[in-house]
C-alpha cells in the first residue's frame, strides 16, 4: 500500500479530476499521507490561468520535488506547458490526469471488492465482470484484498450491461483485476463469448475492454482478435501490461508471461485489425533490474511502439516479497524513468501525429476543460473538440471529426458537419443567383 499527497489548484474541473484520481487510488488500496514529506508520491494538479500562476506552479513543483520521493504533475499547465517543468530541472512525471492512477498504482491490479456493482457515471457505465486475480506478482499488494478469481455467469454480466444501456450508458467499460482470466475459475475461458453477447445488446453504444494481463489472454488471443474484428461496438483497444522487456525481471516479478507471449498477442491483433490501440505498462527500477534489463525494456518499447504507455518507478509495498529485496538507488530509478518517459512521449506523439488529416467517427464521452469535450475514436484514441456548445456537440453524441492537430497524448478534431454546412451555405448563395428557369441537380462538390 502506497501513500499519496495531492494538491489541487485552479477551477472546479481540476477539483473534479483530483477527486477521480483519489477515488481510483483508494480503490487500489492506497491511502492519503499527512503531508508531502510522508508520501510515497505527491501529485500536483496544476493551473495555468496567468503568468503569475505559472510561476507559482513551478515554484510549488520545485518544493514538492525536494520534499517527496516521487512527483507527478497533471492539470492544465502540465498539458499546455509540460516542457516548462522539465526545463526548470524539476524531476516529475508530467501526465494527463486520467493517466495518474495507473502510474501511481505501480502496475498493480485495480481493486474490486466482493460488493462492487456496476455504476453509471455520466454516459459511461462501469461493469466489473469478475473479482480476484490468478496472478501472484511479487510486487503487488492488491491481491491480498481481492483473493482468487470469482467469475459470475455470462448471463448475469449481460443483464447488468443491458441495465446500464437502458439507463443511458453510451460507453460500457468492462473491468476486473484481470479481464483475460474471466471464467478461469469455472474451467471455461469465457471472455470472447461475454464480449460478443454484450455487443449484441440493442442500442447505440461502445464497449471498452479493461486490463488483461498478457499471461491471461494468451491462449484466447486469437479468439479475442476475431471478436474485435467482427464487433463494431467494441473499441479496438487492449490494455496488456508487459511491465518489463526482460524475461529475467519478469521471472523475479512472478509475472505469468514472458516477452514472447506478449509479442504473440500484439502480432495477432496487428494481423487482424487495421486501426487499433495497444496500451501497456512498464515498471522501471525493479530491485533486480540491471542496466541490460532496462535496455531490453527500452528496445521492446521501440519495437512494439504502443499508442498508450504507463511508466512507473518501482516502489515497495509492505508485505510483498519484492519489498524484502535490496532496492536500487533513487537516482538510478529516476534516470531510467526519465529515459523511458522521453521515449514514451516520442512514440505516443508519433501515433497521434499520424491521425492528423484523417476523419474518424467518435463518441463524445465527457466534458473537458472550458467549452471542450473529450471523444474517443473506434480505437479509443482521445480526440478533443473545442467550442462544443456553440457547435451543438453534447456528451453522448456520435459524430465524424477531422483531426486537425495533436498535443502528444491526444488529438484535436473539427466536426465534419461544420465544414459541410459551410459548403452548403456557399452553394445555396450561388443557387440564388442562378436564373429561375434553371432546374436539376446541384453541381458536384469540389474535392479540394
From TrEMBL:
> Ranges of Polar residues compositional bias?
437-448
The Radical SAM core domain is annotated at 119-354
Q: Which domain of life is it from?
A: Archaea
Which reaction(s) does its UniProt entry say it catalyses?
N(6)-L-threonylcarbamoyladenosine(37) in tRNA + (sulfur carrier)-SH + AH2 + 2 S-adenosyl-L-methionine = 2-methylsulfanyl-N(6)-L-threonylcarbamoyladenosine(37) in tRNA + (sulfur carrier)-H + 5'-deoxyadenosine + L-methionine + A + S-adenosyl-L-homocysteine + 2 H(+)
Sequence ranges assigned to domain MTTase N-terminal in this UniProt record:
2-109
Annotated Pfam families:
Radical_SAM (PF04055), TRAM (PF01938), UPF0004 (PF00919)
Task: Respond yes or no to whether keyword Metal-binding is given for this record.
Answer: yes
Q: In the UniProt record, does the keyword tRNA processing occur?
A: yes
The residue ranges of the TRAM domain are: 353-417
Q: Which family does it belong to?
A: Belongs to the methylthiotransferase family. CDKAL1 subfamily.
Q: What does this protein do?
A: Catalyzes the methylthiolation of N6-threonylcarbamoyladenosine (t(6)A), leading to the formation of 2-methylthio-N6-threonylcarbamoyladenosine (ms(2)t(6)A) at position 37 in tRNAs that read codons beginning with adenine.
Q: Output the PANTHER family linked to this UniProt entry.
A: RADICAL SAM PROTEINS (PTHR11918), THREONYLCARBAMOYLADENOSINE TRNA METHYLTHIOTRANSFERASE (PTHR11918:SF45)
Q: What is this protein called?
A: tRNA-t(6)A37 methylthiotransferase
Q: Which taxonomic lineage does the organism of this UniProt entry have?
A: Archaea, Methanobacteriati, Methanobacteriota, Stenosarchaea group, Halobacteria
